[in-house]
Description:
The chain has helices spanning about 5-15, 15-30, 35-50, 55-65, 70-80, 80-100. The model has no long low-confidence stretch (mean pLDDT about 95). The relative contact order is 0.13. It is about 75% helix and about 0% strand. The protein has two domains: about 1-30, no CATH class; about 35-105, AhpD-like (Up-down Bundle). By secondary structure, it is mostly helical.
Amino acid sequence: MRVVSPFEVFAESFPEVTKTYRALKSSYGSAGPLDEKTRQLIQVAIMVTIGSEGGTRDHARLALEAGATPDEVRQAVLMVLGPAGMSRTSVGILWANEVIKARGSA
């Protein structure tokens, strides 16, 4: 059974707002020299820090799709240990590992 993300539910409910949001993300995503993989790894760390399971899972998947290795995704999660603490980091590793495993990566 496919799990529907909260963002998908939002997008179906508010398509015009979603379109504007995606345009905004595209504009700041291309505003500097960071490549897609790096941007997604940063987003993984941010999502873990704020405790967003869906965001962590989505951005871990997107990071892998952009060419990140499983170890790079795990290191992005590990980087939040200082600012976010052991509990957030531990659950972030759990979420990331589940995404990695679902994609058949080690």
